[in-house]
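Incident log, structure service

09:12 report received: a user says their structure output differs between two submissions of the same chain.
09:20 pulled the input from the user's history:
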Amino acid sequence: MSEDRHELFEELPEAEALHEHYAFEAAKGQEPLRVDLFLMNFIEHATRTKIQAAAKNGNIWVNENPVKQNYKVKPYDVVKVLFEHPPYEHLLVAEAIPIEVVYEDDQVVVVNKPAGMVVHPGHGNYSGTLLNALMHHFEGLPLNADDRPGLVHRIDKDTSGLLVVAKTATALVHLTRQFFEKTSKREYIALVWGAFEEEKGTIEGAIGRSYKNRLQMDVFEDGSYGKPAVTHYEVMESFRYVSLVKCILETGRTHQIRAHMKHIGHPLFNDERYGGNAILKGTTFTKYKQFVQNCFKVLPRQALHARTLGFEHPVTGKFLTFESELPDDFVACIEKWRSYTNA
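09:34 re-ran on a clean worker, output below:
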């Protein structure tokens, strides 16, 4: 765990009125694995020592019963981490953080999130999030199904771009339905490794937690695991070893573009979690390697931007579309590749 969550695995009183901090269901392909190792695969920054201490204190439960650290997790087991205090991400505090408002009326707000900002508190990020900022700027935001005020959807911490926030319960229900029924419009710009044989294409494959790395999502083409996901892509510009592509989402699964692009052999440029922070295409020349490293420094995150967002206004019924320009780091990286290719 991160330092600001050091209290998570403290010794606590008897397990009465415990609060759920984490809950994970083991997949049907789960091989027998000690519960402490299982949780280390799920919880970012967790240490085995703290997880074992939590088990000793009766804070790790499987199928509604406390277990020891050496319990072997089996397929479909429901593993929970429970503590006396509520999860810190639920202790929401308004913070005076500047946000870029693209559009606002009495029903909705559209914001342009910078890269590096987490959308909502959780997993070691308990302040400085977009939600903390929204609570400062807007009062009375409606709670969604996860008790997160106003949030209709989310984008990853290091992805920049547009999100819509509901200001009323009516707007929240209406917008949530649009995202569920795939009538909203979401278009992303990504820089990915490799050149494409086809200018356009569609990636289909269910997305679920990776069996090997539970912090990653994998694609399961047979649909036996995960949730259905569809991504349409179109190559905008090719730079020999990397390509600039437009991705249009039909669904909105966790890490959808990142997982789908890796699945077809085109990981996002500088996407550390999915292996895009290595030099995957190009020459062996030292100058080229130095050039790519410089590009990584210019764009120190995955090259993904939520450029276009469209939805039907929950009251007027008018379809609204918004666009966000690529941020400076993204533009600078593209320009470096363009100059390198044309040299």
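09:41 both user submissions now match this output. Likely a transient worker issue. Closing.
09:42 reviewer note: The chain has a mean pLDDT of 89. The radius of gyration is 22 Å.
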